[in-house]
Amino acid sequence: MTAKIAYDEVEVGTELPAGTFPVTRATLIRYAGASGDFNPIHWNEKFAVEVGLPDVIAHGMFTMAEAIRVVTDWAGDPAAVVEYGVRFTKPVVVPDDGVGAVIEVSAKVAAKLDDRQVRVDLTATSAGQKVLGMSRAVVRLA
User: Fold this and answer.
1) What does the alpha-carbon distance between residue 14 and residue 6 come to, in Å, rounded to a whole number?
2) What is the DSSP letter of 19?
3) Which SS3 state, helix, strand or coil, does residue 103 take?
4) pLDDT tens for the 142 residues of the chain, in order
5) How far apart are CA 8 and CA 58, in angstroms?
6) Rg (Cα) of the chain, in Å, rounded?
7) For the whole model, what pTM was predicted?
């Protein structure tokens, strides 16, 4: 597959379609099984509170993966992402209330680079808090 978005049709400031990603305790258990990360801060409320967290929190790598979906969906090809990095700024707190949490992601093209690549800056929030900082992806377009 290749990116479906043409480099020549993208300008600095182009906004990508935003994404909203629900997270429940069940989501975290499934992710723990897939990733092998069974740290109890991601599923055991009592343990999470004992170590100073407000409640169970989502895995950082899960949060990162949900955020990049905005870019891969836009590009039309996950392999179009050639570089991706974030700083974890706040945890995504996931209460056991039947609703859980929501990660909201917006993104825009911040720079056009050489070799048909663009830098996309992402903003990810949950409960009104920015959960990822310096979230950037380099994407090779068609």
Assistant:
1) 12
2) E
3) strand
4) 789 999 999 999 999 999 999 999 999 999 999 999 999 999 999 999 999 999 999 999 999 999 999 999 999 999 999 999 999 999 999 999 999 999 999 999 999 999 999 999 999 999 999 999 999 999 999 9
5) 38
6) 16
7) 0.95
